[in-house]
Amino acid sequence: MSKIKSATLIPVFALAISAMASSSLAQQTATATPAAQTSSAKSAAKADLLPFKATEKTLANGLKIIIVPTGFPNIVSLQIPVQTGSRNEVEPGKSGFAHFFEHMMFRGTKAYPPEKYQAIITKAGARQNAYTSDDLTNYHTTFSKDDLETVLKVEADRFQHLDYSEDGFKTESRAVLGEYNKNSANPVSKLFEVMRDSAYTTHTYKHTTMGFIKDIEDMPNQYAYSKIFFDRWYRPERTTVIIAGDVDPQKAIALVEKYWGQWQRGKPQPAVPAEPAPHGPVYTHVAWPTPTLPWVAVGFHAPAFSVKNKDQAALATLLSLSFGNTSPLYKRLVQNEQKVDQLFEMTPDRVDPTLAVIGARVKNSDDAIYVRDAILKTVAQLRTTPVSDKDLADAKSAEKYGLIRSLDNTEQIAGTLASFVHFDRSYATINQYYRLIDSLTPADLQAAAQKYLSDDGLVVSTLSHQALPAAIATTPTLASLLPAAPSTRFNVLVQKSALPQIRYKLLFAVGSAQDPQGKEGLAALTAAMVTAGGSSERKIDEVKQALFPLAGSFSQQTDKEMTTFTGSIHKDNWAQFNQIALPLLLSPGFREDDFRRLKDAQKNALLLDLKDNNEEEFAKERLQTNVYAGTPYGHPVLGTVAGIDAITLDDVKQFWKTAYTQGAVKIGIAGDVSDAMTASLTQALAALPAGPGLPAIAKPAGHKAHGLEVEIIEKNTRATAISFGLPLDVTRTDPDFPALWLAKTWLGEHRASNSYLYQRIREIRGMNYGDYAYIEAFPRGMFQFFPNPNLGRKAQLFEIWIRPVAPENAHFALRVALTELGKLVDNGLTQEDFATTRDYLMKNVFVMTSTQDQQLGYALDSQWYGTPEFTRLMRDGLSKLTLADVNRAIKQHLSAKNLSVVVIAKDAAGLKEKLVSDAFSPIKYDGNKPQSLLDEDKLIGAMKLNIKPEAVTITPAAAAFAQ
Fold first, then answer.
1. pLDDT tier at 9 (50, 70, 90 boundaries)?
2. Span 756-762, mean pLDDT?
3. Which residue, among 669, 658, 644, has the nearest Cα to 568 in the 3D structure?
4. Distance CA 193, CA 197 (A)
5. pLDDT confidence of 46, banded at 50, 70, 90?
6. Which of 85, 712, 825, 831 could form a disulfide with 135 if both were Cys (CB 3.0 to 4.6 A apart)?
7. How many CA atoms lie within 13 A of 329 on its CB side?
8. What is the mean pLDDT of residues 208-228?
9. Residue-by-residue DSSP string for 455-490
């Protein structure tokens, strides 16, 4: 099983849940009540944020049921939030178990062992996952409505009859350690871990969801305790079953009663210890072992989530206004002074009092104190100066429309609902909370600041590689920081729907493949200057301030051969939005200070966010550039260090003028769009420069390895990441595309625990966090379930991604992956595997294209490729496939012998010696394993790879992407 993680750099504090079901809920009669028909709902119907008519019921055993018909056809999303998170890990030495059971819940039962369970989920064409936060664990599955009873049945079985052996427990515990190792390259994860540890003395928020590393390492010895934890917290009175989508409420409730009604209540459990009043300020520092930019994080003890008390909503709104990307401080530190390249704030929703945090990544260590004091000075002013009525009204508008904008599919609606339901197990919570936000006044925000933004509640944490100024350890009082005194024509693809959120895409046939030699990164920097550099009439801060109350966005994505600009806005704000957003593209500001800022940000994204902090994406990107070295694909989209350094503002201006032309753009628009909207958009785009755009590139010819050709990137890292593959001529235009798509899905479907490689490497052996295969580029794959649309390429890459393993297991991991790939190439799929995978894909293709953005993006991609609409292309192709077609395509296009390999490792020389000597690679397990597996391991460990010494190169990490 894989976990969804946030795609942002900042680890998102997940939403919180109630510790125990309230007595009033426990005493409810088991009567189904339409939520929209209750008296309280009637009185506030006009203020409700969610427009759906929900039906709720509490069973006699305490299980809560919420049914929400969304109006979207065919799809059902099942969300099961359990009021159990790291908050409930009350015994010392037992942190991390809530997250651990997110893993263990996929270990099966006697009735449905893992392979049988996964076969059912696969047959349903479902995508399934789970996540754990401080206060809840949520299990979610999205699938065809026809499979509702089957999914409810198997889910009920695993919640009531989870069964696992001690050996299985120990194997999974190593996978959890692998997840910790995976995150270890990100300095911000460590910063927050240390910050929370220092902020709390008693409450279980002291540790993160992952838990303390010493507890994770000791997990293999805690089998007996795991049984206690599960029996204690996984009970019906702590659980809600949410069913949203194309569903009949009464029939759905009957199914839940049928399969979940016999689940037994639990017993009273230990209380979570209360945190005493803070006596700050508190300061901690993290010395980071490898080069990175410094981080400064300023936190304050903050109130718990509530739909009655205004404190949490008020403080969250205040900090968003004061430190978000439309705030004066953001403009000052990020845009004007350019001392910071990231500034963020978060006030997490939690069951108990939490920690609100403002954080900044500082470009120069000498500025750390300056940045800290700028944040603290802003905080001090919030205590004395109320926000304006207009700013508060704008914040409320952005909060409301921002959430509505995201609710464009059943899964998103259900997932958002789950994030609020777990507090009181009530559909009403989200509507109550947004009514509370709507009632806030400037005085409420100032009162929250005065109550919580205090010296006693202050927690400051820093992280750096180089030493910071010594004075950073002395925190000034807030009062000391206050001043003494105040101071043409286009063909448009239209996807009409009832959604009030309008989304349009402008896809230009240009990307990093058109970067001039020596100016690698120009396409990406030009696109960034468009969306983040302001227009000729507005600076970027003015653009953000203008868009803030509209909750509109105008973003860009640059790839090898495509650059896409996406606008998203509620139809009520269409005209006002385009007056602000479209000038960014049509008349960019091209200011020198914005150019310097964005150039620095792009270089940091390459050096820090990709190379220094993310071994997995680093290895994947390096494999791409190695295979296509010497071609227009031969450098990252971000560019190279030398290329970025060489780019001038005049280069950007010229690229914009020649690349973003009328003849180079494809336009798509979706939502409740009118003819007048389409006409106004095309009329505005007529101001683009005339011309065809930059010349298209010829199809790149990738390097075909002879044997195994290995590059080891030498980097100071805890774990070892591996990617390998070969160039692929097959794209969506090729008749073999559906066949290879099916093969890679069976072999290594992204983030799917039922795929073959995942089962062989991660599930059976517990070696890492997951193992996947691809036949199309998937940038940022570690952050998301599905690839973004608008990544079209004339040439692709077959790739296998081995997520980080322990260094001593790297050689074996490569061997086992090559062994399994070799079996596929030599033997092909079985008829059963072929049929099961095809059935899954016939349904799953709708899941992967279910959002408004995906549907519009894939439609434009089909225009670019010259193919039918994607779901029709895939379903038609899959329906015509035979087993012989798939196995022939595998043999024709794939190889387990001639591959390019990239490994990120600390001991590069030692690994090279193992590879070229073909030394036996042993593997050890914490738990007992079947003899058949141990015998297989011996054969794999002795497998001859026949790698020649000259076929292995060692590259210092600093040298990668330098030129």
1. very low
2. 95
3. 669
4. 6
5. low
6. 85
7. 25
8. 94
9. STTEEEEEEESSPPPGGGGSPPPTGGGS-SS-----
Q: Are 139 and 415 in contact (CB under 8 A)?
A: no
Mark 92-115 as b/e (b = at least 16 C-beta within 10 Å): eebbbbbbbbbbbbbbbbeebebe
Enter the tokens of residue 332: 């000052």
Q: Is the pLDDT of residue 81 over 80?
A: yes
| Two tokens, residue 59 | 């069973």
Closest CA to 215 of 260, 247, 180: 180
Residue 649 per-residue DSSP state: H
User: With pLDDT > 90 as the criterion, what percentage of the chain qualifies?
Assistant: 90
**Alpha-carbon distance 324 to 329, whole Å?**
8
What's the pLDDT band for 185 if we cut at 50, 70, 90?
confident
Q: Are 841 and 741 in contact (CB under 8 A)?
A: yes
pLDDT score at 6: 29
Count the residues in the chain. 963
| DSSP state letters, 653-679 | HHHHHHHS-GGGEEEEEEES--HHHHH
Angle at 637 between CA 666 and CA 343, to 5 degrees: 100
- Dihedral sign for Cα 401, 407, 412, 416, please: positive
Q: Which two tokens stand for residue 755?
A: 């795929």
Is it the case that residue 23 has pLDDT exceeding 70?
A: no
Alpha-helical (H) ranges within 358-515 are 368-384, 389-406, 410-424, 428-438, 442-452
Distance CA 453, CA 457 (A): 7
Q: Angle 870-880/737-748 helices, nearest 10 degrees?
A: 90
Sheet architecture: strand order including 563-570: 492-496, 665-671, 501-508, 563-570, 553-558
Look at residue 19 and tell me whether its pLDDT is greater than 70: no
State the Cα–Cα distance between residues 157 and 143, nearest whole angstrom.
Answer: 18
**Distance (Å, rounded) from C-alpha 726 to C-alpha 728?**
6
The contacts of residue 566 (CB under 8 Å, 6+ apart) are 503, 504, 505, 506, 553, 554, 555, 556, 557, 853
Q: What are phi and psi of 929, to 5 degrees?
A: -125, 155
The neighbouring-strand residues paired with 250 are: none
Angle at 9 between CA 628 and CA 336, to 5 degrees: 100
CB 430 within 8 A of CB 68: no
560-594: b (≥16 Cβ within 10 Å) or e: bbbbbbbbbbbeebbeebbebbbbbbbebbbbebb
Residue 24 has pLDDT above 90, yes or no: no
761 contact partners, CB below 8 Å, separation of at least 6:
767, 768, 771, 802, 813, 816, 817, 820
Split at pLDDT 50, 70, 90, the class of 230 is: very high
Each residue's pLDDT tens digit, 310-327: 999 999 999 999 999 999
Q: What is the DSSP string of 878-910?
A: HHH--HHHHHHHHHHH--SSSEEEEEEES-HHH
Specify whether the CB–CB gap between 803 and 768 falls below 8 A: yes
pLDDT tens sequence across 502-529? 999 999 999 999 999 999 999 999 999 9
| Mean confidence (pLDDT) of the chain | 92
Which pLDDT belongs to residue 180? 86
Helix/strand/coil for 441? coil
CA Rg value for the chain: 27
Residue 269's pLDDT band (cuts 50, 70, 90): confident
Alpha-helical regions (H) of 686-803: 737-748, 756-757
Q: Using CA atoms, how far apart are residues 63 and 32, in angstroms rounded to an integer?
A: 12
Residues facing residue 905 across a β-bridge? 714
Q: Give the pLDDT score at 31.
A: 43
Check residues 916 and 45 and name the one with the higher pLDDT.
916
pLDDT of res. 483: 63
What is the distance between the alpha carbons of residues 643 and 204, in angstroms, rounded to a whole number? 48
